[in-house]
Amino acid sequence: MNPKRILSLLGFKVVSFLGEGSYGKVYLASSKRYLNNVAIKVMDRSKMAPSVEKFLTRELEIIKYLDHPYIVQVYEVHETPQGLIFIVMEAAMMDLKQMIVELNYFPVDLAKAVFSQLVSAVVYLHEQDIVHRDLKSENILLTPDGTIKVTDFGFSRMSRGFPELCNSLCGTPNYCAPEVLCGKSYDGKKSDVWSLGVILYTMVTGELPFNYENILYLQKKPLQYSIPVEKSCRDFISYMLQYDPFTRPSVTEVAQHPWLQLKSATVTTASKNTGKKIGLK
């Protein structure tokens, strides 16, 4: 049966098509059950490889229990006998990567406001012994009021961290920690911290810190900046991007870093394409 037809039977009206990933499509939809529009991720279990289906099953188990203001809220999950899966979640205006493209790069105060929310979400996940393993700017959504929402838990799993290690090579290479790319067993919590460092670097410079062709070489070298970035911010990024996972901080230590303790100003920015203002505190 056509997914849109099923959505109609479930009480949703498709407003627009938002995008397509490796394992499904995402629609913007409305329903009398919700005041605001929702995003609905549609996946077909029958077309998935067994390894992908394993990740999906794990994701569906994990997202049931997540409850945090900076993590996307899942309202409903439906599955048909034919294997079509519908995940109904809160909708956002754009993702962080799109915002970086629009702004070219984030002013430091704005970066601090957004990044503080992201760190809060990851602290919550790690306290629940959940590792995300695919933190990247595309998986961080922005709502019109400036709230971030971490999404896409397809590679997430339960893990207490060292000495309980992960073995799956997963995630997005430009954001992956060196120990992951080298195929070693790794502490998923420490690899998430590396990804946080890559995200903040990308926010304040508008570009990724490592060229994928030379990534294993560049990850060992001091970071280079193509635009001026204040030293305290550079030092904070280097703190998260320590090559050795044993000296790399935990996310709790990241949250306690002096750079994040300095109160950021209230910042309001606007999307050039939509004209919608985003206020961040």
From TrEMBL:
<dbReference type="GO" id="GO:0050321">
    <property type="term" value="F:tau-protein kinase activity"/>
</dbReference>
<dbReference type="InterPro" id="IPR008271">
    <property type="entry name" value="Ser/Thr_kinase_AS"/>
</dbReference>
<keyword id="KW-0723">Serine/threonine-protein kinase</keyword>
<dbReference type="Pfam" id="PF00069">
    <property type="entry name" value="Pkinase"/>
</dbReference>
<comment type="similarity">
    <text>Belongs to the protein kinase superfamily. CAMK Ser/Thr protein kinase family.</text>
</comment>
<dbReference type="InterPro" id="IPR000719">
    <property type="entry name" value="Prot_kinase_dom"/>
</dbReference>
<dbReference type="InterPro" id="IPR017441">
    <property type="entry name" value="Protein_kinase_ATP_BS"/>
</dbReference>
<dbReference type="GO" id="GO:0000287">
    <property type="term" value="F:magnesium ion binding"/>
</dbReference>
<dbReference type="GO" id="GO:0030154">
    <property type="term" value="P:cell differentiation"/>
</dbReference>
<keyword id="KW-0418">Kinase</keyword>
<keyword id="KW-0460">Magnesium</keyword>
<protein>
    <recommendedName>
        <fullName>non-specific serine/threonine protein kinase</fullName>
        <ecNumber>2.7.11.1</ecNumber>
    </recommendedName>
</protein>
<dbReference type="GO" id="GO:0005524">
    <property type="term" value="F:ATP binding"/>
</dbReference>
<dbReference type="InterPro" id="IPR011009">
    <property type="entry name" value="Kinase-like_dom_sf"/>
</dbReference>
<keyword id="KW-0067">ATP-binding</keyword>
<keyword id="KW-0597">Phosphoprotein</keyword>
<feature type="binding site">
    <location>
        <position position="41"/>
    </location>
    <ligand>
        <name>ATP</name>
    </ligand>
</feature>
<keyword id="KW-0744">Spermatogenesis</keyword>
<keyword id="KW-0479">Metal-binding</keyword>
<dbReference type="GO" id="GO:0000226">
    <property type="term" value="P:microtubule cytoskeleton organization"/>
</dbReference>
<dbReference type="GO" id="GO:0005737">
    <property type="term" value="C:cytoplasm"/>
</dbReference>
<keyword id="KW-0808">Transferase</keyword>
<dbReference type="GO" id="GO:0007283">
    <property type="term" value="P:spermatogenesis"/>
</dbReference>
<keyword id="KW-0832">Ubl conjugation</keyword>
<feature type="domain" description="Protein kinase">
    <location>
        <begin position="12"/>
        <end position="260"/>
    </location>
</feature>
<dbReference type="GO" id="GO:0035556">
    <property type="term" value="P:intracellular signal transduction"/>
</dbReference>
<keyword id="KW-0221">Differentiation</keyword>
<keyword id="KW-0547">Nucleotide-binding</keyword>
<keyword id="KW-0217">Developmental protein</keyword>
